[in-house]
Design brief:
mainly alpha, 121 residues
Length: 121
């Protein structure tokens, strides 16, 4: 098994009360645990700032941060930039655009998501 370390330069300007979640994110990034999500799920939607799979990732991270609804993304994940950075995200989509992406999902996208989750697990 490969050794893992987090360097101080990656987190110097970011603070979070979710340190264990940040550590999990760093490990997931290094091992590319969530890569099947971006490779297998293809939602037909215009990309302005974030890709549809980035917005799905934001929804997932918001849930990990304790958000019970997508609206809570703006108060849980967006202010906690350290969590997003640990999972390889440079920012967080606004909750309304995350909702639009989820609404744009078809049954085919759900099947793709199931396949991606199967690969992840």
């Amino acid at each position: 098994m490969a050794e893992f370390s987090i360097t101080a330069e990656r987190i110097t300007s970011l603070r979070s009360s979710r340190a264990s979640l940040c550590a999990l994110g760093a490990i997931c990034q290094e091992r590319q645990v969530l890569a099947p999500l971006a490779k297998k799920v293809h939602i037909s939607q215009k990309v302005v700032l974030y890709k549809p799979t980035d917005k799905l990732m934001d929804a997932f991270l918001a849930m990990l941060c304790g958000a019970r609804t997508l609206v809570a993304t703006n108060t849980t994940l967006r202010p906690d930039r350290a969590v997003g950075r640990a999972f390889g995200r440079d920012g967080c989509a606004e909750q309304s655009t995350i909702w639009e992406t989820i609404q744009a999902c078809s049954e085919v996208n759900l099947a793709e998501l199931r396949l991606a989750l199967h690969d992840i697990f």
